Amino acid sequence: MNTVEQTYNHLSCELLQSTANLVLLVAGLLGFSLLGLILIHRYIKYYRRRQAYIPISESKQEQDVWLQSITMEKGNIVSPGLLSPSACDILQPLSHTSLLPSSGTLAAQAREQQSERSAIEARISTFSKASSPDAGEEVQKRNESVLQMSDEDVEGGRTWKRVVVEYN
Asked: Where are the membrane-spanning stretches (predicted)?
């Protein structure tokens, strides 16, 4: 009876160990499979994103038209059949892929700041040169400037008018 119990205990321990080893092996395989699926998903995502920026033409004629348009934009007179597109032709400008403001927006902001500075300087010079009007003297409009401003972003376009009036 003692040997039967020992054999039974020994077999149950071996069964428990082999089950634990099997579970560990399956967990490892599942982990590696999941890691492989994640890497494949990222590669496909990268490949699709990369393909979205490279123009794919189905025929030689479409490719020639694309190359002609690029060479015309650059002002090149060389035949487009002799040149392959450069990296600058394929890659988008940095302003298209990042959150940088457009050059038009920057120019409008610079123009606005410059007009504000000139208006402030004009007011300062007017106040320093001109004295305040006497009690019976009439106030006259000296200068009026109107600026049409506009701004366009992802929320839409906005326009406004800035009026600066100077008095004597």
From this structure: 20-40
